[in-house]
Fold this sequence. Notes:
Elements: E1 7-10, H1 14-27, E2 32-38, H2 45-52, E3 60-66, H3 75-79, E4 90-96, H4 109-112, H5 115-122, E5 126-128, H6 134-147, E6 151-152, H7 156-163, H8 168-182, E7 187-188, H9 204-212, H10 217-228, H11 235-253, H12 264-276
Parallel strand pairs: 1-4, 1-5, 2-3, 3-4, 6-7
Helix pairs in contact: 6-7, 7-11, 11-12
Amino acid sequence: MNRPGFSFLACPDPEIIRERVDRLLAESGQDFGKAVFWGDEELDAPFWSALTVGSLFAGRRAVVLRRAEACPAEFWPKLAPALRGFNDAVWPFFCLEGPFDRKGPKIPKGLSEQPYFKVAEKRKWLFVSPGLSRKDMGPHLSDWAARRSLAFEPGVATALAAVLPPDLAHADNELAKLELELGDRATIAMSDLAQLSYREGLDGFGFLDALAGGSDPTAVWREIFDKELAGEEMIFPFLGLLLYEARIMWRLAAGEAGDVRLPPFVLQKKEAMARRL
């Protein structure tokens, strides 16, 4: 036996769950078909048949239960007989995709009491991830760029890591748009970040606009430090964004709007601010 008898995955990011299942299957070195079920739907005969009936002549099968946290309490004791022995033809995956609390994943009470779950914890058959964090974003970007033979101008990777959305699917969507915009170029510049449509978190223009618009400077700085600069590692990316915004508005003030690629409504706001400054 060179793989777990069954696997539990706890993560609020469904794309990370999907990638983790695919990685585990690939690392096993065996060919698995995949049967996917959903915990917020009725689990009837097809699920139990897929989980318990296997034949090497029909091929190995990964039985993946998504959103398993939505299963009723009476489901978990029923699962025990199916997980009691190792079935070489069936690899069950139970995906807990609910939000974490301060202590980590919220394991359903009916599950946490089951002996098979304690086995999963002891044998490290339980994968736990809070999702894509800012610390994870740098390595993710490095892998993404290396696979595409792309490079970053100085400071761009750090700034990009600070503004990408903190879930894998949305982050990859933004990176796909960025890659499309590059065309034949192999180096990503700070100006390319204007193509990103996601702007949660570090918002350089919003910060400058609040200060230039007459807002209380103390309140604006407090907002930035309390909500945006949570940790020293975020300060330099934020300064990079401010520098980028200043360069854009300098070009707008110099009459170079035709060379600045921005959505019309964003361009209008930045032109107005450039005139005020």
